[in-house]
Design a protein that fits this description.
Helix content is 24%, strand content 26%. It is an alpha+beta fold. Bound molecules: uridine-diphosphate-2(N-acetylglucosaminyl) butyric acid.
């Protein structure tokens, strides 16, 4: 190894690199701090004809097995700068390895609006577009201007516009064709004046005794979101989890009418041509909230979050998920789709 070649470690422990804290070992591991380190890692894996898996904060994935073959690359490209600052707006450029929540606080404390509702979402900036992170009435796609990525097919660095990213609810091009693009940098278009998004139930309640909503700043909203999230969602540092384990299922209006008749209290977010059902409500109604077996369980304040309280394996988590999916299917006829990425177990 020459001096400027980054270090590739064999048999690396990944348990602290996934927020579910599942025990897994990477055959090889590297942290890529620059594009050239990333290219080196990709070339190294190509020479040996082994697979690569890029990890961000590990907050949205499940290792199904305890051995991850190939090279695991932790994305660690840093960088935070402003571009094209004008009277109202500015573009915030973030390296893929930057922590998302720190970026939210940085933007909000600089007086810029647009991502404050996405405070305290675990993970990195590079992972944010993959599942089009969203919370409290805001999604990343609302402010994302472009993504700079390495196209692994051609080896070229490309820029994808918001439209090219094909964003949808918890979905994007990057999720559809995993492995083709490695995100290097994201650009967010933020504003000093755009209206704050305060319409989501929990936020309305949180700010209900605030006498002058017009005086609220982006930082006030970020702090409100942090308080609301801390009340309901477990901190992965204390109770390992991967956030919402299922997507909220989207059903046609016809199905919605039938469900509403059969279950008048059903919780949902109605749209114009379809309705998004609250998966947490469906799971809760099946009696799963607060359930625990010896290793894994369902959070006691948010039924959509699966937790790993005692060294559970990926297999334990996925077995619980399957039982929940079966119950919801049987009771409501609705299929729940797992939200985090599942890294398959190695073939034996
Ligand atoms: N509910 C229950 N039981 C529960 C929790 C919720 O019946 O245990 C019902 C309540 O009626 C509530 C409704 O479900 O009104 C919706 O719950 P909540 O407002 O907590 O939101 P959610 O739809 O369950 C989504 C996101 C969360 C995000 C919140 C807030 C998905 C898959 N999840 O959850 O995202 O924080 O909205 O915007 O869309 C994540 O993706 O990791 C995540 C936490």
């Amino acid at each position: 190894m020459s001096q400027d070649e980054p270090e590739i470690t064999p048999s690396a422990d990944l348990s602290h690199l996934n927020t579910l804290n599942v025990a897994a070992t990477a055959e090889y591991f590297i942290a890529a701090h620059t594009v050239s380190e990333l290219s080196y890692a990709l070339g190294w894996a190509k020479e040996r004809a082994i697979d690569c898996l890029v990890l961000g904060g590990g907050s949205n994935l499940v290792f199904a097995g305890t051995h991850v073959p190939g090279l695991v690359i932790r994305m660690a490209i840093a960088g935070r700068q402003w571009e094209n600052a004008g009277d109202d707006g500015a573009t915030l450029v973030l390296g893929a390895g930057e922590n998302w929540h720190d970026a939210v606080l940085y933007a909000a404390s600089s007086g810029y609006r647009g991502i404050e509702n996405l405070a305290l979402i675990p993970g990195t900036c590079g992972a944010a577009p993959v599942q089009n992170i969203g919370a409290y009435g805001v999604e990343l796609q609302d402010t994302l201007f472009s993504v700079t990525a390495l196209d692994t097919q051609t080896g070229q660095v490309v820029t994808l516009s918001n439209k090219e990213c094909q964003f949808a609810y918890r979905d994007s091009l990057f999720k559809q064709i995993p492995g083709q693009y490695i995100i290097l940098q994201i650009r967010l278009r933020l504003s000093r004046t755009k209206p704050l998004s305060l319409g989501y139930g929990d936020l309305v309640e949180y700010f209900s005794d605030h006498s002058a909503p017009s005086s609220l700043t982006a930082l006030d909203i970020a702090e409100g979101i942090m308080a609301v999230r801390r009340r309901k969602l477990p901190d992965p540092e204390q109770m390992p989890n991967a956030g919402s384990f299922f997507k909220n299922p989207v059903v046609p209006l016809e199905t919605w009418d039938q469900l509403k008749t059969a279950f008048p209290n059903i919780a949902a977010y109605p749209g114009e041509s379809s309705v998004k059902l609250a998966a947490a409500w469906l799971i809760d109604q099946c009696g799963w909230k607060g359930y625990r077996n010896a290793t894994v369980g369902v959070h006691s304040r948010q039924a959509l979050v699966l937790t790993n309280h005692s060294h559970g394996s990926g297999e334990d988590i996925l077995a619980l998920a399957e039982r929940i999916q079966n119950d919801v299917k049987e009771r409501f006829g609705v299929a729940l789709e797992i939200e985090p990425r599942i890294v398959p177990a190695a073939a034996r």
